[in-house]
Amino acid sequence: MRRMKMDERGLTLVEVLATFVIMAIVGFVAYSVLYSGFRTYDRVKIEAGLRDEADLIMSELVSEMFLIKESEIAQKRLPEPGTQNYYIEKKDGKRTGFIDGKLWIDGDVKTNVLNSGLIEIEPNQTKIEELGPDSGQYKIVLTLKSSEDKQTLTTESVISTINDLGEGAHHENP
Predict the structure, then answer these.
(1) CA distance 157 to 58
(2) pTM
(3) Is 45 helix (H, G, I), strand (E, B) or coil?
(4) Measured by CB atoms within 10 angstroms of the end CB, which terminus of the chain is less buried, N or C?
């Protein structure tokens, strides 16, 4: 009988507890890595969406402004007094720029540009500035905000209109 007790093999309580502690540490590290990866994926996904929308908006705006002739401009509201609206109004009454947090191109609101519904133009930080009086050059600052996590993206571009008036062109800007 004594011989049987000596041949019994098994794990002691200390060995079992040590195994559980090691497994818990490895599990916690694995969970942390996975959780961090998912958070990074979500952040990058939102950032990519913001970049896509910014590229689309900028390309629409730059394409339109690039074709505007200085002789077609009736007034420049950069900004419109008492508002955060930045736009150029042509003699035919059509406006191009940012009005009430929306993109306007040649007199039409472009609602199809912000097609995700989760991204909006940040009107407090979006603007169009003329680089020097009657220079025909404009700096466009576009800031978009994700409604999911309030992440923002700001892009800038400089564009020139067609100077068909020559030097010293003046526009009404009340």
Answers:
(1) 8
(2) 0.76
(3) helix
(4) N
